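Tutorial, part two.
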Amino acid sequence: MWDRDLGGHERTLLHQSNLGRSCARATGMAANRFPYSFDRVATDYDTAWALPDDILDPVISCIAKLCRGGRLLEVGVGTGRLAIPLQREGVAVIGTDVSRRMLTLGRRKGAESLFLADAHRLPLADKVVRTAMTNRVLHLLSSWPAALAEICRVTSGRYLSVLERASADPDVDAEYIRLVQDAGSNTRRPGIYERELVNQLRPVETFDIRVVDAVVPASYLISMLEKRVYSSQWNIPEEVHRAAIRSVCDKFDGQQVSTRNDGQIVTWTIDSMHEFLEN
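Running the prediction step on this input gives:
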């Protein structure tokens, strides 16, 4: 099951023994071992996780320079939020995801070379991409070291991640999280955030993302919370969720929120990642 846009000459990249098993495993993960498929929020994903152009443009430019002359694998490609502008810059991007709906939307937007695949069994031969990337993925995986080991198997050069940071005043999201946690709900995901990986393995390269300030209506942030677009919300009981939404509406509706977005692009060599995973 390769994407219809994958050319015949590129099919040699595929690990044929993994291809069927990876797709089959991915199909069952959303309902079984992997309950964090974004199928449920696919249509809201681009809105919830959109990057301002002042951040997106330099991020794409930086990644394109890092990947010049080699293939890039994005595990957790989603709807192609980064893959599509990278492909427009001439980067040969291969994308995988466990969400069939996200991939369908990505194809409709023009993304190419997409696979429905489990991060733990990628449908690619050994060392066929020079660079691999995950963004907001590892925290969803309880067995994230195994996923990183599989990424290392197919990658010859570097692994990178875009570490996005956002702050808000007043912080509507933080108030919602406080309310549901006070009600006994666990919002922690099973894995590790890419930004936490930095504390365990020092990156080889770090590129700062510029700071962008903006003002948004609190009602917009509340609407995203109400739709449960964030994976940290998906296990919260409905009555707890509804009570928290009512509280943040009472407290913040009608207000304007000052936001600040920035972050870093960080890279590790595959050799250093191998050594880290073996220790």
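The radius of gyration is 19 Å. In part three we will examine how such features are distributed along the chain.
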